Amino acid sequence: MQENTANWYAIHIDRQDQEGRILDYCQALGKDLLKDAFFPRIRYYKRYQGAWHEEEKLLFPKYFFVVTDQIEQLYKLFQKAPKPIEILGTGDTPVELSNDEIHLLNKLMNHRHEIEMSTGRICDGHLEVSSGPLRGMEDMVRKIDRHKRMAIIRTQMLQREMEMQVGLEVTEKS
User: Fold this and answer.
1) Which residues form the NusG-like N-terminal domain (predicted)?
2) What are the residues whose beta carbons fall under 8 Å from the beta carbon of 70, sequence distance 6 or more?
3) What are 32-91's pLDDT values in tens digits?
4) CA separation, residue 164 to residues 3, 26, 66, 144, 154 (Å)
């Protein structure tokens, strides 16, 4: 997980299949300019062929995040990329993620930028998370799909209110 020593920015991409190309391009820029670049992911279970399988998908399709203290320089390089990369912002001014957004992502993600499965139970209609990144964040859960082993959390992210799917296995309901 990243310390808050540099600013975080969200980058919009046209298609999900650009992930490898973009990460390669970012790695070539070097650690002096770019402290980190990543696509946040969620880990979850999906049932097929009669069994549950651990899967992984992007938390925000079409977005990746960069951590830098030299956004102006990075912005110019992104504009010169073979296919220009768009940093979220207003006009030509990139907007950094708020401290609350960074704190939430750091709390949810592990060091590989993945949100792992949480485990919990429902007791008298209230969710109690016993392990995983949702522990202590039960109030953010808006909906639980026990059949898909997913929870929907609602939060402010990327300059708007949005819902995020995260893995949650409910082991007991009373």
Assistant:
1) 7-104
2) 33
3) 899 999 999 999 999 999 999 999 999 998 888 999 999 889 888 888 877 777 777 766
4) 23, 26, 20, 12, 6
User: Nearest 5°: CA angle at 92, between 20 and 38?
Assistant: 25
CA angle 99, 44, 161 (to 5 degrees): 35
DSSP 8-state secondary structure symbol assigned to residue 113: S
- Distance between CA 70 and CA 158 in Å, rounded? 20
DSSP label at residue 98: P
Separation CA 30–CA 70 (nearest Å)? 12
Q: Which residues pair with 164 in a beta bridge?
A: 153
Question: Nearest 5°: CA angle at 113, between 104 and 117?
Answer: 80
Other C-beta atoms closer than 10 Å to the C-beta of 43 total: 17
Q: What is the pTM of this model?
A: 0.86
Count the neighbouring beta carbons within 10 Å of the beta carbon of residue 50: 5
